[in-house]
């Protein structure tokens, strides 16, 4: 990102409805020049609508859109310095892959040797230079999508809008394309607004993530802020796996709080940003699976000061990088624990049904004010405790 960051795109108090149904409500959003931002949120929350408004394929019912200091709210799409890669790609069927990519440059009357060089470069980026002579119908869906990306990037727009451009690709190619896109964005200094359903993709690629819910912005932050300090339960549950506990704040002082959680007293560092919460207040405590630790019952003595919950192993799933264990707690409820392999003892395993103790890394608890979570929210986590 350039410093100090200048704003490239602003949405000011933007609302959009279709047939009386509000899809975006009074949205304010600034996107900085050179930034990679990702819109993340459940299906129907308005991600594509935001891109269509910025690209000029839709007009807001209210509010303003500003691009590079110029109001463009009513400006025709083809006059905006914005390129788009949409969920459904539309390539010209009668043209070769090369001509599809070169098309925009030729329209701009770029000299032919430069057209050739830039089109080939763009095709190399998406690893399709060897298929440049083919027609779109001779490519797979994923390959066609990569041509669409090359075609949009080759024009080096100020702003590139990408609507789930990688969703048709297999895992490995998707990872490669994530790296290539990120590299391209840095090299060319193009601002990217990227839409994905995939939270891992959002976290790994973005400078900032915008988590959306039903037409409004729930939280904007760096991937780390959104993951480690979700502002709401919705964000916590949408971005990553969660273990959620009901808890009550028992005592507060400037340094420490005590909570009761799963019938235990837990002492945590004071949370200054939540200073307004009173003693006796009910809260939710979020613990990420990778912050949980498993111990054998014989270790209880050694864990004297730490909160620890008893339970039995009911699932053990090999995930390649990690081992995920689901524990049924004695007091009811389940939690998920995600551990890296113990390289010293790779054959070690818990048996199903085995009794274990579960604790967690102190002070990694995220405290959230209780709120209603709508049932339509996709919850990727295990049961609440
Ligand atoms: N042309 C339209 N007419 C009527 N309703 C529309 C139109 N376009 C979008 N909508 C509605 O607006 C809401 C937001 O749609 P949008 O396409 O922005 O969602 P999205 O976040 O991109 O979802 P997905 O992840 O499924 O692509 C949805 O409820 C959708 O049905
Ligand atoms: Mg969409």
From TrEMBL:
Pfam families cross-referenced by the UniProt entry: ABC_tran (PF00005), TOBE_2 (PF08402)
Ribonucleoprotein in keyword set: no
Record-listed E.C. numbers: 7.6.2.11
Keywords: ATP-binding, Cell membrane, Membrane, Nucleotide-binding, Translocase, Transport
Stretches assigned to coiled coil: none
Superkingdom as given in the UniProt entry: Bacteria
A single Gene Ontology CC term: ATP-binding cassette (ABC) transporter complex
SMART domains given in the database record: AAA
GO molecular function terms attached to this record: ABC-type putrescine transporter activity; ATP binding; ATP hydrolysis activity
Catalytically driven reaction(s): ATP + H2O + polyamine-[polyamine-binding protein]Side 1 = ADP + phosphate + polyamineSide 2 + [polyamine-binding protein]Side 1
Family of this protein: Belongs to the ABC transporter superfamily. Spermidine/putrescine importer (TC 3.A.1.11.1) family.
Subunit structure: The complex is composed of two ATP-binding proteins (PotA), two transmembrane proteins (PotB and PotC) and a solute-binding protein (PotD).
Role noted for this protein: Part of the ABC transporter complex PotABCD involved in spermidine/putrescine import. Responsible for energy coupling to the transport system.
Record's protein name: Spermidine/putrescine import ATP-binding protein PotA
Gene: potA
């Amino acid at each position: 990102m350039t410093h100090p960051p200048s704003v490239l795109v602003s949405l000011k108090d933007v609302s959009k409805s279709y047939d009386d149904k509000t899809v975006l409500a009074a949205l304010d959003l600034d996107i900085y020049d050179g930034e990679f931002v990702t819109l993340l949120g459940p299906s129907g929350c308005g991600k594509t609508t935001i891109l269509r408004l910025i690209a000029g394929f839709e007009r807001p019912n209210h509010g303003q859109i500003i691009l590079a200091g110029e109001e463009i709210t009513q400006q025709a799409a083809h006059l905006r310095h914005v390129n788009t890669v949409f969920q459904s790609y539309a390539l010209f069927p009668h043209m070769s892959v090369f001509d599809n990519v070169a098309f925009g440059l030729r329209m701009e009357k770029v000299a032919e040797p430069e057209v050739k060089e830039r089109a080939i470069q763009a095709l190399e980026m998406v690893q399709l230079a060897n298929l440049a002579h083919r027609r779109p119908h001779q490519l797979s869906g994923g390959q066609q999508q990569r041509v669409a990306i090359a075609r949009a990037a080759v024009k080096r727009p100020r702003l590139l809008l990408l609507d789930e451009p990688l969703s048709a690709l297999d895992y490995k190619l998707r990872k490669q394309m994530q790296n290539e896109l990120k590299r391209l964005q840095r090299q060319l200094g193009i601002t990217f607004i990227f839409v994905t359903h995939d939270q891992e993709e959002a976290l790994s690629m973005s400078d900032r993530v915008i988590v959306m819910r039903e037409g409004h912005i729930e939280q904007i932050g760096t991937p780390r802020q959104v993951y480690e300090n979700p502002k709401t339960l919705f964000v916590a549950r949408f971005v990553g796996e969660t273990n959620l506990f009901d808890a009550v704040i028992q005592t507060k002082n400037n340094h420490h709080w005590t909570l009761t959680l799963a019938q235990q007293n837990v002492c945590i560092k004071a949370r200054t940003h939540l200073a307004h919460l009173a003693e006796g207040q009910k809260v939710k405590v979020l613990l990420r699976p990778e912050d949980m630790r498993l111990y054998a019952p014989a270790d209880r003595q050694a864990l004297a000061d730490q909160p620890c919950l008893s339970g039995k192993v009911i699932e053990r799933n090999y995930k390649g990088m990690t081992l995920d264990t689901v524990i049924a707690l004695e007091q009811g409820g389940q939690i998920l624990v995600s551990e890296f392999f113990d390289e010293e003892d790779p054959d070690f395993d818990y048996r199903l049904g085995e009794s274990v103790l579960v604790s967690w890394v102190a002070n990694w608890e995220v405290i959230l004010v209780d709120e209603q979570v709508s049932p339509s929210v996709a919850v990727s986590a295990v049961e609440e405790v």
